[in-house]
Design a protein that fits this description.
It comes from Volvox reticuliferus. This protein has 1245 residues and is an alpha+beta fold. 30% of the residues lie in helices and 19% in strands. Strand 8 and strand 9 form a beta hairpin. Helix 3 packs across helix 9 and helix 6 runs parallel beside helix 10.
């Protein structure tokens, strides 16, 4: 694998001494040379200038140099050698040759630029009057003409005769350089693009109204999220190619050179929409035209749909005056068109000059087209306009020719071609002599340096780099390379997506721009036969692609089954994401981990900046953000480093914007022309996908080697994510929930819960509370998406115990009532409200609160209501001359034998608001009140006895199902007088129990609790309440449609028993005569479910719900799910006596190790479940555990003196057992058993 940059390398192979001999590289030049720009000297080696050269000529002055880089402007050229030296030739009027003279003279002799001796130059670029070079450290230097600030020195005006580092680069590492006539574009290793120089026509991509020149680097923000791998600059227009093969152009469009279907300028990058579906793999900008090299068979206009091999196709657009577009005419073209003259060739490189173009095929053929005034096409002397072959025309300037269609150069030596360059009105070709048997690939190739910087940058494959570093763990250089690659890739949204994109193409000679070299089988190379001068025996190179790394997902949560790769709807390879993160962390290197964390933080800063400035391609900036949405960011001083610019959250915040710019439709890009809407969508989705990757980073779950990265990364991630508008955030959460269950829980939900835990455990200062609410809002989005997906994770996965324990629930409740009006999030029927607005209270995210916490909120609400009712009743009593003590309680006095009748009578006589008073119950036995004082225990026994009576069969209110072991409303009961009042009483009883914190032993199906909360019910609920009927209806739905009518023999009606009488009810109008068929069976099932669960018991349930909500219909009830409401009413059926023992408290001389206490717990543990329930009822008044389990119940065991024959006693109001110090285990067992079996009543001796 080649990385495309010298700073990221694979481990060196064992050197072959034969390969250390420098290969014979030959540099051939031809074309215009009146200023010495070809570096060709006159006869005798003098510096006399030659006007032009029409045939390829070897540049003798550099024949002993291993030239690897070519660059040329209109009147000067630059050559880079493998040793990092730079040689220049041509015009020096503005000091562009970098020599120590003051300029003003031209030179045809390529001369070493000694001012760069301390630098290792890897690439160069030439403008009209200035020069720039790129060093192996990623730095850029410039010199020459500076009229427009194009040298990047920080000011405009005087020429710069000596190379100087450009300003504004900071610690960014540049990997590609493109120099236009008077402007330049720089591509960094993290995918950011910077511009400098002349801003006319919008060539710097800064946006509307920002066309001024720039003498220091400015970021082209719209390109940041797109993953740019190549930049190109023409005379006044610019282009950028992304890792996924999309092309963006901007600047001058007068001749159609932008390819947007019109002749207008573009001040910011816009997607070339006409190339939609075409995967571009190289772009080159000429004076006023553009060439694009694309893969065949990728779709789009004119693509080969049935191409069995991947070939390089050439598209062109722009000025056709001299035929430089190669389209067979001199018309200007404003949309990309296929160059038909190259259809039969597999093109591997293109190059655009001022008025001509060159193309190189995989079979080492060079084609030229365009202007030939200076012989830059290298045509043979016998080419005349005779009508044969490619179309030829007389040029309008002198006797020269121009070709409007490509023609092959036959005058080149038959040796492999490494690279071609069309510069100004000149042409250059790098050739290499091949040794016998050696295979040399045509064109620039990631595996070698020659011409590498003329092609796109290959994004490092982090997983493969980590694997290489793991095998060479002692190699510090390798680890530094990994750190550098991580810093670059993980801080770039576009590179991140390129690395993890699903279904990457393998038909590119430069791979997929992600560091994976994949060669087309049709690509040809030259071997020994070519060395001998024969082009007829060119052999086909069967290049094999390296097999993908076979480590499957040994990593936690990677869902790979049977070799299949998880492919998400967002086009991301989740397996690759997980494998990459784990490969990096498996290096166990603190520098790598720190680089990963810091890079992701910079990535989030970049997303924040883009969101805050509205710099998504094609979109309008938010109001108040300044011209072009860039505010003061792009106008920063030259001293600011680029990374500080991208991380300028303060400046971004000052812009006063949010990701609302994401919602801008294509129309918002009006004036940008075709592709504006696509640019908006591309930028928006790129940022969302980048966040999708970050959410899966193991660092969020604390896998950071003690560097403390999880909290800071989680905080920044949540902050940035919540700047998304509601619809974008909802989409992101939907993507995250589509992850495999293990990843969703382990990589997303639980790390966020861990972050919430840390926040909850700390002091809840205003800033801390804001972070808690932000994290809760993020969890709200995930919870809503999880519910919409049918509960991929159980709802209990979202409970946060620490938050439920440490937060001030009373304050949250009151704030909820005051600000949010007691509305939880999301309201029924809404999936976006959970995330569209900031939260004010944790009560808006009830899914985070445990049932026990919600129970405390409900009891707190009841306490507030009790206090209000008691105060109102006391005032009313005083006004009537009564003592308040007799008017502030809901007093109920009942006989045990008539508990139901007494309760019904007393509750019916009370006005509804009296039900809000504290309940105080007394029992009467034989006309005398029992001794028990109601501190809670008496009420618990009252409800136990009352509920047991209500469900007795003789009352006929409920029917019991042996199959489901639940009670359901009696369908016939509604027809009897007073039945509605009785059901209201049952609802009041349930409400009073909740209101007063008492657990009941009731057995309703969950359907009842869903209906109480207003949730819809359906067939699954019917299956729970009536299993046999539910299974039958499922069978009907699964039945062969043609057999339904004959098999069922049913109509749209239902029959039910009414005291022995069969009654029939039509399910639809006329249903008694409409048969159930395969076509209408779904309607039949739906109507039968509706009738059974709703319509048949509508009167009964309405009265029941009315009574229930009369007592506890406050806002706090809306916090509960139906499962939690059942738990609140019925308690936990599971009894954990181990937890009860662990939390018990001892008084009166008892302690945990006391012999009596040890005997007691031994006896309890030996009891069966029924006996344990009896013991629990004896000591607490209830045989079920509270919502939080028995661990939340503190059982107090008091010493009642020495050994005695008295029975143990209990104070159920205080959960206290009064236990004498019995002398033996058998005696304790007998006394305890007698007590728990005769525990009804108070004050019994």
């Amino acid at each position: 694998m080649a990385t495309g940059d010298s700073s990221v390398r694979e481990p060196p192979a064992t050197p072959n001494l034969g390969q250390l001999v420098r290969s014979g590289v030959r540099l051939m030049v031809w074309g215009r040379s009146d200023m010495g720009q070809l570096g060709v000297q006159a006869l005798g080696g003098s510096d006399f200038l030659v006007g032009s050269i029409s045939t390829p000529t070897q540049l003798e002055a550099l024949k002993d140099k291993d030239v690897v880089g070519l660059a040329g402007g209109a009147f000067h050229v630059a050559f880079v050698t493998a040793d990092g030296e730079l040689f220049t030739a041509g015009c020096n009027d503005n000091g562009q040759l970098g020599r120590r003279t003051s300029g003003g003279s031209s030179s045809a002799r390529p001369t070493h630029v000694t001012a760069l001796e301390s630098y290792n130059v890897v690439a160069a670029g030439c403008g009209a009057t200035h020069t720039m070079v790129l060093t192996n450290q990623g730095g850029v230097l410039g010199w020459g003409g500076n009229e427009f600030g194009q040298t990047g020195c920080g000011s405009e005006g005087p020429d710069q005769h000596h190379p100087r580092p450009i300003k504004g680069l900071g610690d960014q590492r540049v990997v590609r350089l493109a120099v236009g006539a008077n402007h330049a574009l720089l591509l960094t290793g993290s995918g950011s693009v910077f511009a400098v120089g002349q801003g006319s026509f919008g060539a710097l991509g800064q946006g509307e109204g920002l066309l001024e020149n720039r003498s220091t680097l400015v970021p082209v923000l719209p390109l940041m999220p797109l993953g740019v791998v190549q930049v190109a600059a023409g005379e006044n227009h610019s282009a950028a190619l992304t890792a996924d093969g999309r092309l963006y152009t901007w600047g001058r469009g007068k001749y159609g050179q932008l390819g947007h279907g019109d002749w207008g300028n573009r001040p910011r990058p816009v997607l070339v929409a006409s190339l939609r579906g075409v995967r571009a793999k190289q772009v080159s900008c000429g004076g006023d035209h553009t060439l694009v090299l694309a893969e065949a068979g990728t779709g789009g206009a004119g693509a080969d749909a049935d191409s069995s091999t991947c070939r390089g196709l050439v598209y062109s657009f722009g000025r056709g005056t001299w035929g430089a577009t190669g389209l067979g005419s001199t018309d200007n073209i404003c949309r990309p068109s296929r160059v038909q003259g190259l259809e039969s060739e597999n093109v591997v490189q293109v190059s655009a000059g001022s008025r001509h173009s060159l193309a190189l095929s995989a079979s080492h053929k060079v084609f030229a087209f365009g202007n030939n005034d200076f012989g830059q096409l290298g045509l043979d002397s016998d080419v005349v306009p005779n009508g044969r072959g490619p179309a030829t025309f007389h040029s309008g300037s002198g006797d020269g020719l121009f070709l409007a269609s490509p023609r092959r150069l036959t005058s080149l030596p038959a040796v492999p071609v490494l690279a071609v360059l069309a510069s100004g009105d000149a042409s250059m070709v790098l050739l290499q002599e091949a040794r016998p048997g050696e295979i040399v690939l045509a064109g620039p190739h990631p595996g070698r340096r020659a011409g590498r910087h003329l092609m796109p940058y290959d994004v490092p494959d982090l997983r493969h780099l980590a694997a290489a570093a793991a095998t060479a763990s002692e190699d510090a250089r390798m680890m530094r390379d990994v750190v550098t690659a991580v810093e670059d890739v993980m801080s770039s949204p576009g590179y991140l997506l390129a690395l993890f994109a699903d279904g990457k193409s393998s038909c590119s000679t430069s791979g997929s721009h992600t560091g994976k070299t994949a060669l087309a089988p049709s690509q040809r190379s030259l071997g020994a036969a070519v060395t001998h001068g024969s082009t007829a025996s060119i052999s086909t190179l069967e290049a094999a692609t390296t097999a993908a790394d076979s480590d499957k997902a040994g990593a936690e949560g990677v869902g790979v089954s049977g070799g299949s790769i998880i492919s998400m709807p967002v086009g991301m390879d989740v397996s690759a994401i997980q494998a990459c993160f784990e490969a990096l962390l498996r290096l166990y290197n603190r520098e790598v981990v720190a680089a990963l964390g810091n890079s992701l933080m910079r990535l989030l800063d970049a997303i924040f900046l883009l969101a805050s400035t509205g710099a998504v391609p094609g979109s309008r900036p938010p109001s108040g953000s300044g011209p072009g949405g860039l505010g003061g960011i792009t106008g920063g001083s030259g001293g600011n480093g680029a990374r500080s610019v991208l991380g300028a959250t303060t400046a971004a915040s000052a812009a006063g914007a949010s990701l609302r710019s994401f919602g801008v439709a294509a129309a918002a890009g009006a004036g940008d022309g075709a592709g504006a809407g696509d640019s908006v969508a591309s930028g928006r989705l790129s940022l969302l996908r980048a966040l999708f990757v970050v959410f899966q980073c193991p660092l969020l779950s604390g896998s950071g080697m003690g560097l403390g990265l999880s909290s800071s990364l989680a905080s920044r991630l949540i902050s940035v994510t919540l700047r998304l508008p509601g619809d974008a955030l909802q989409l992101l959460c939907t993507w995250l929930v589509s992850l495999p269950r293990e990843l969703l829980g382990g990589r997303v939900v639980r790390p966020l819960q861990h972050y919430l835990n840390k926040l909850a455990e700390g002091p809840m200062a205003p800033d801390g509370r804001a972070e808690v609410l932000a994290a809760a809002r993020m969890m709200a989005g995930l919870h809503a998406a999880n519910e919409k997906a049918g509960g991929k994770l159980p709802f209990s996965e979202f409970y946060n115990q620490q938050l439920s324990t440490h937060v001030n629930l009373r304050s949250e409740y009151l704030l909820w009532l005051e600000v949010a009006g007691g509305r939880s999030t999301p309201p029924p029927g809404s999936s976006t409200a959970a995330i569209s607005q900031p939260l004010v209270s944790l009560c808006q995210t009830p899914f985070l609160l445990t049932p026990e916490a919600k129970s405390r909120i409900l009891q707190g609400e009841a306490h507030i209501q009790k206090e209000a009712e008691m105060n109102a009743s006391a005032r009313e009593a005083l006004l009537q001359g009564l003592h308040p003590i007799y008017a502030v309680f809901l007093d109920i006095s009942v006989r045990r034998a008539s508990i139901l009748a007494d309760t019904a009578q007393q509750l019916a006589s009370r006005p509804p608001h009296h039900l809000k008073r504290p309940l105080r119950v007394s029992f009467v036995s034989q006309g005398v009140a029992e001794e028990g004082v109601d501190q809670g225990g008496v009420s618990r026994e009252f409800f136990q006895l009352l509920v047991a009576e209500i469900f007795q069969p003789q009352y006929g209110m409920f029917t019991y199902s042996d199959e489901s072991r639940t009670f359901w409303f009696n369908t016939s009961a509604c027809l009897e007088d007073g039945a509605a009042g009785e059901f209201r009483l049952v609802g009041v009883v349930l409400g009073l129990a909740i209101y007063n914190g008492v657990i009941l032993d009731v057995h309703f199906p969950q359907t009842v609790y869903k209906k109480l909360l207003g949730e819809p019910v359906g067939l699954p609920d019917l299956e729970e309440a009536f299993p046999t009927l539910g299974r039958s209806l499922r069978a009907v739905l699964a039945m062969d449609p043609d057999q339904v009518e004959d098999a069922l023999c049913r109509n749209f009606e239902v029959q039910y028993d009414y005291f022995g009488e069969q009654r029939t009810v039509p399910l639809i109008p006329g249903g008694t005569s409409i048969p159930v068929t395969g076509a209408n069976r779904a309607q039949y099932v739906q109507r039968l479910v509706e009738w059974t669960l709703n319509e048949s018991v509508e009167t009964q349930f309405r009265a029941f719900a009315y009574g229930f909500h009369q007592v506890c219909g406050g806002p706090a009830l809306s916090l509960f799910r139906h499962e939690e409401l059942e738990l609140l009413i019925c308690g936990l059926p599971h009894l954990d006596f181990g937890a009860l023992e662990a939390n018990a408290r001892y008084e009166g001389g008892y302690h945990r190790q006391h012999p009596t206490i040890v005997m007691l717990w031994q006896l309890i543990n030996e009891m069966d479940l029924d006996q344990k329930r009896r013991f629990l009822s004896f000591t607490t008044g209830c045989d079920r555990a509270p919502v939080a389990g028995l661990g939340a119940l503190v059982l107090v065991i008091q010493r009642a003196g020495p050994d005695t024959d008295r029975l143990p006693t209990a104070h159920t109001c205080f959960n206290a057992l009064v236990l004498p110090e019995y002398s033996s285990r058998s005696k304790m067992k007998a006394k305890l058993q007698t007590a728990i079996e005769n525990a009804q009543g108070f004050g019994l001796k």
